[in-house]
């Protein structure tokens, strides 16, 4: 992957006297010139998979502590096997992405069939980026 390296040196000489050294700032940044949406989605999905597998998230139980990815295998939460497809059918006015996001951040909004309250709200635990990554990962589970 090509990387663009930008180095900027700023010299503030107009205010410097002859006996004072001019301050310099060295900004080095690597930028990928092209990044495809597929690769961004792949990265987000990998980050989401890591979040899903974590034992805990901000002091709360991690997703895999309560949810299985195997069909018909429930622990203390419903199985998430096929959730990428199922989520699109749960609430007609919401797409799969919005349904999953709300279910994670505000789990009391909707309950999976046969399940009730019990999942903690992760709205204060996950950043927007982490929630996006987790949703992106869950959308790949078919």
Quickly count the helices. 5
CATH fold-level topology: Cytochrome Bc1 Complex, Chain D, domain 2
* Residues in helix, %: 25-40%
Taking pLDDT < 50 over at least 5 consecutive residues as the criterion, the unreliable ranges are 1-40
Give me the strand/helix succession: EEHEEHHHH
Question: How would you describe what is shown here?
Answer:
- This protein is α+β, with helices and mostly antiparallel strands.
- The protein has one domain (37-139): Orthogonal Bundle (Cytochrome Bc1 Complex, Chain D, domain 2).
- Helices cover 36% and strands 11% of the residues.
- The longest helix is centred in the first third of the chain and has 17 residues, at 37-53.
Q: How does the SSE layout of this entry go?
A:
Blueprint: E1 4-9, E2 26-31, H1 37-53, E3 56-57, E4 60-61, H2 63-66, H3 83-90, H4 96-105, H5 128-139
Antiparallel strand pairs: 1-2, 3-4
């Amino acid at each position: 992957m090509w990387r663009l390296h930008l180095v900027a040196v700023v010299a503030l000489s107009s205010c410097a006297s002859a006996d004072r050294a001019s301050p310099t700032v060295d900004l080095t940044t690597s930028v990928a010139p092209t990044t495809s949406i597929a690769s961004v989605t792949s990265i987000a999905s990998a980050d989401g998979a890591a979040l899903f597998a974590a034992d805990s998230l901000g002091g709360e139980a991690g997703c895999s502590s309560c949810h299985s990815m195997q069909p018909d295998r429930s622990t203390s939460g419903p199985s998430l096997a096929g959730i990428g497809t199922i989520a699109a059918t749960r609430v007609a006015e919401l797409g799969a992405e919005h349904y999953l996001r709300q279910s994670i951040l505000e789990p009391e909004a909707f309950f999976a069939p046969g399940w009730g309250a019990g999942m903690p709200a992760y709205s204060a635990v996950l950043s927007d980026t982490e929630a996006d990554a987790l949703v992106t990962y869950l959308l790949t589970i078919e």
